Fold:
Amino acid sequence: QLQLVESGGALVQPGGSLRLSCVASGGRLEYFAIGWFRQAPGKEREGVSCSDTTDGKTYYRDSVKGRFTISRDNARNTVYLQMNSLKPEDTAVYFCAADPHFALRFYSSLPPGADYGYWGQGTQVTVSS
Structure:
């Protein structure tokens, strides 16, 4: 069974940067589609970014395009979310998710959370002065 552990969340000032990490165990992450989600206070969980397993296709939520970048390090079995130019509205608990049973070529936008079978525990990102 795949296990995912996020880290890297912190308190950061507006305009700052953070890099979130999602380390996988129990499976080779290169064979999984990966997604990053977030849940802000009082709001529902929303997709942030996702990446495919083989063709390198990625999707981003409109509000983070140009600021966030998803990437993989297969040797470390880790997925990253680099977040730059952070805004207060980016404040949320961030989750990584993975699933081996779909590919982004099946989608025209961010896949929903229900399509992912494996989830991490979340890491808190707070953007505030």
